[in-house]
# Entry
Amino acid sequence: MLQPPPAEPGMREEEVETPALLLDLDAFEANLDAMARRLEGSGVRLRAHAKTHKSPIIARLQMARGAIGQCVQKVGEAEALAWGGIPDILVSNQVVGERKLARLAALSGISQVAVCADDAAQVAAIEHAAEATGTRLAVLVEIDCGAARCGVAPGPAAVALAERIAASPHLRFGGLQSYHGSAQHKRKPEERAAAIAGAVEATRRTVEQLRQRGLESPIVGGGGTGSFEHELASGVYTEIQAGSYAFMDADYARNEAPPPFRQSLFVLATVMSRALDGIAVVDAGHKAVPTDSGYPLVAGRPGLVYVSASDEHGKLRVEDGATPALGEKLRLIPGHCDPTVDRFDWYVGVRRGRVECLWPVAARGAMH
# Structure
């Protein structure tokens, strides 16, 4: 159920009900502008990843700065974006299940949609859904470029699957999906560079073998916030799929030579207890800040360290003797921005200490 927003426009930041998902609009807009400038004139397009923001409003802001469209991971996310007016959507993932594919095919009536496959049985199922709805769906072949997650082997196996797609009267071969997710958070720059070099070579080889069979790849997509500079320089990729660049998080900040973007996303929390010496407790625990990528950082307060969480409580260790005041509001930098956004119904957009806007997280919980 969509919850009432925790703030109103014009309200001071310290008046916002907590926990709240706070978006620093100056930093956020600077990030969107920085990525747009970086890609300008490169010949490589941005297809920003909406699994991060889950918002047609943010998608439109990215597209106003030149993004070609959006990526999603789930049909439900595609629906939220298409219903919100986004015209070009790639499900950069496999979709399995008759009902899900029927929903995806139905979206082609209002948006240009595409999906990925790494198995001939998936292709047959997508073909059936497209035929049943009288549409022609674009299908990309996902290759395993080093992440060892999804994807057919690059080279001949990928070419064979592409030929199967191209032979169907109900499908179009859309190109290659080649995203090395695990490379994004390799801490050392040389580790990231080596991982992406392998991905680039596998992708280059597959694109060339496809061309030899008379198949061009309209999309060669991949690249995330932690690695996009390498894909951009490769001469192979045509689209970058970065998403976290708009927000950033504590885990990206742990990379050596982290991405050149500002922290714009925070969880605003209130100090609810300081009964124990050296300890302060905030009202943002597991239900507000996921800990899959470590505990959040306390922005601007290096003497406060988030050390443990329970459902509704976050425990802070006070290291500099400056115990925060009861009721004080603190900005927490989440460890992982994507699942953090999925905890909340609303973005509270703030600028210079005042609430400027409230945006719904339209695809929150869209797991199907």
Remarks:
- The chain has eleven helices and 17 strands.
- Residues 189-212 form the longest helix (24 residues).
- The two ends are 17 Å apart (CA to CA).
- The chain has two domains: 26-247, 262-343.
